[in-house]
């Protein structure tokens, strides 16, 4: 089964080896038909501490790294 890859913006890089990534998506309201922006934050593993607040990154599902981290940041070479 392929692993999901999401794209988002780093909103926090204060923790060591971890970044918080906000992923936005647009969904259509089931009754009114208007498009709504929804966002969700994911804790992602950043082994080299290279990503800073405001960076656009891609994250991929991985094995659990800690209690809340189940995503890893993709580096361009991967």
Descriptive report:
This protein is mostly beta strands and 78 residues long. Helix content is 0%, strand content 50%. It has no helices and 5 strands. It has strands at residues 5-12, 18-28, 35-45, 56-61, 71-73. Strands 1-2-3-5-4 form a 5-stranded mixed barrel. β2 (18-28) and β3 form a beta hairpin. The two termini are 18 Å apart. The model has no long low-confidence stretch (mean pLDDT 96).
Could you give the count of β-strands?
Answer: 5
Average per-residue pLDDT, rounded, comes to: 96
Tell me the fraction of residues in β-strands, as a range.
over 45%
> What's the alpha carbon Rg, rounded to whole Å?
14 Å
- What's the helical proportion of residues? under 10%
Supply the number of helical segments.
0
> What is the global morphology?
globular
Oligomer class? single chain
Largest sheet: 5 strands, mixed, barrel
Strand adjacency order, main sheet: 1-2-3-5-4
The structure class reads mainly beta
């Amino acid at each position: 089964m392929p692993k999901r890859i999401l794209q988002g913006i780093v909103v926090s890089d204060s923790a060591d080896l971890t970044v918080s990534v906000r992923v936005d998506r647009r969904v259509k309201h089931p009754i009114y038909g208007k498009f709504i922006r929804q966002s969700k934050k994911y804790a992602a593993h950043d082994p080299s501490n290279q990503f800073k607040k405001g960076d656009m990154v891609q994250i991929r599902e991985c094995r659990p790294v800690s209690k809340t981290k189940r995503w890893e940041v993709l580096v361009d070479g991967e």
